[in-house]
Amino acid sequence: xxxxxxxxxxxxxxxxxxxxxxxxxxxxxxxxxxxxxxxxxxxxxxxxxxxxxxxxxxxxxxxxxxxxxxxxxxxxxxxxxxxxxxxxxxxxxxxxxxxxxxxxxxxxxxxxxxxxxxxxxxxxxxxxxxxxxxxxxxxxxxxxxxxxxxxxxxxxxxxxxxxxxxxxxxxxxxxxxxxxxxxxxxxxxxxxxxxxxxxxxxxxxxxxxxxxxxxxxxxxxxxxxxxxxxxxxxxxxxxxxxxxxxxxxxxxxxxxxxxxxxxxxxxxxxxxxxxxxxxxxxxxxxxxxxxxxxxxxxxxxxxxxxxxxxxxxxxxxxxxxxxxxxxxxxxxxxxxxxxxxxxxxxxxxxxxxxxxxxxxxxxxxxxxxxxxxxxxxxxxxxxxxxxxxxxxxxxxxxxxxxxxxxxxxxxxxxxxxxxxxxxxxxxxxxxxxxxxxxxxxxxxxxxxxxxxxxxxxxxxxxxxxxxxxx
Length: 470
What we know:
Helices cover 71% and strands 0% of the residues. It has 470 residues and is mainly alpha-helical. Residues 457-470 have low confidence and may be disordered.
C-alpha cells in the first residue's frame, strides 16, 4: 500500500465507528466519499468498497438514531420520490432492460441518501459542517486545478478524478463553476477569519480551474454565476465595474491561443457548424427527441445510447435527423445535455418533472434568501443564495453535459429542503416570541391600569329586620 492508501484507510478507521454512534457523521462521510472520490486517487484501497461500507453503517445508524427528524416533504422531494417509482417502470420497458436495471440501482443510492440527508442534517452547526464538507470535497480539485492552471499558463487541461462522475474535463468544469458562488456566499457568514479566507481563495482558484478545463459549457456557467455574484455585491458596484474589465482582459491575455480559439467556436456560425464536437451533440439531441417522440412516456431507458454502441448501433442511427462521417468515426453518442438525456431515457413526462424540479428548487431558494429571519438565522439566507446561484449555473452548463443523475444536484435539492425547514422553524419561533411579548404586554398594561377601590363610591346596603333595602 502507498501513503495515500494508508492515509485514507486511517481516516476511515476513525470515521466508521463514529458513524455508528453519530448518524449525521455517517452522512458527512458518505457525502465526502461520493463527492471527492478520494479512493479514486489511491493505488489499492478502491477494492475495499469504502462507499458501500459507510452507506450500510450510516443507514443502520440512522434507523437506530433518536435524534433523526422526519423528511421535509417539499415539492422537490416529492418529485424525486416519483422518479424512484417511474424510473423502475421505464427500466422494465427499456431498449436494454438488463443494463437499465443495473444503472437504476446506482441512481436509487443517490435518491436514498437525498432523503436520509434531510433526516440528520439540521441546526446551524450541522448545516455549517455539511456545507464545508461539500466545498472541501470539490474545492480540493478547484485549488489544485487553479494552481495547476496558473503554473502551466493554461496550456494543459484540468481533469477530475478518473472513473468518477466528474472525471471528464466538462464534468469537473461544471462542478468547479458551481463552487464559486457556494464558497463565496458561505464565506460571508463564516465567523472564523481563516476559514473565511480559505473559502474566498477556493472560490477564486475554482474559477481559474474551471477555465483551465477548456469546457465551453463551464465558461458559460461561470459567466452566469459571476453575473449573479456581481449583483449580490452591487453596493460595491464602482469597484466591480473597475475590476471586471481587468479580470476579463487578464484572463484573455493569460490563457493560450488554443484556449481562445476553442471558446470562439461558440460566437460564430462558421465555428459552430465546423465544430465536430458540437454537431455530434446536435445529432445526439435529435436521436433523444425522436426516441421520446416514439415513446413519450417511457423513453429508451438508462444508457440506451452507450449500450447501442455494443448491441445495435443501427437502432440509434435510425432515430437521427442526420448522419455524417466524423473524423473519429461514426457511432452512437451520449446526449451531452441533462435535458435531452432525461428526454431520451424516460420521455417527455419525466423531462417536464425534471425541469419543474430545477425551477422549483431555484425559486424556493430565492424565497428563503429573502425571508424575514432574525440575525441568528441570517446564515440560512446566505446559504440559500449561494445554492440558488449554483443551481442557475447547473441549468446553463448542464445543457451541454449528461449529468442528469449527478449526486451533487440531488444533494442540493436535499439542502434546499433542509434550509426551508430551518427557515420555517426560525419564523415560527419569531411568531411565538412576538405573541408571547404581546400577551405579556397586555397583562402588564392591565395590571398597571387597575383602579383601586374607592370607599366613597361603595354603596352600602343596609337591610332592616325584614331584609328590605333601605
